[in-house]
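Figure 2 data, in text form.
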Amino acid sequence: MGNPNLIPYETIVRATSGEPEAVDEVLRYYSRRIRHAALENGHVNPDTEDSIKSRLVAALFKFRFDEQAYNVR
């Protein structure tokens, strides 16, 4: 049905509502990209990594779905 490489829509919905398992799944999905973004001089900066994770979780909780945007006519 959908792209198997993407996070399932249901997981995103659960994560935005604060379900801990879904939030963990989103963090696991992006973990490699987060670690790569936290590289400084060839080493992962744990403070930068934590900051990116915190901002991702905060963005999840602020995200709102616009039902009308997804209605196809």
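Caption note: The mean pLDDT is 89.
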